[in-house]
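Mods, move this if it's the wrong board.
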Amino acid sequence: MEILETKSYSSEDLKRFRELILARRKETLEELETLKESMMDVTTGEYISESSNYSLHMEQGTDAMEREKTFLFASRGSKFVNQLDDALARIEAKTYGVCKACGLLVPKERLEAVPTAQTCAEYKNTGVPCERGRLALAKKKKGK
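Not the wrong board. Structure tokens:
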């Protein structure tokens, strides 16, 4: 079994990943803006408050639930944007796509599906470095 040494993706690959991440980032920011607008009162330009014009308690509850759901989506989107920004920083440092667990390159397919991935799928699923990674780590330890 061939052991792949730690390296980084080519400049061309990193450029392609950067474009993919920037597109996802733009899309997510647009979604966040839409969520923000849905939380605003069109007439006042302020965030919709708990005090609703509805007279029925059930309608107020529904509004509160919708606001909470919108807030959770916005929170998740903000976290994703931060993760994308971290991925862009790793691209600049030329460490993007290197598994933090085993030091080998994360497959391109995984990075295209999950551009914020920092580990190979095996480590993500099991918490144990992949077989190739274990062999590479053992080889590095012997070389020291």
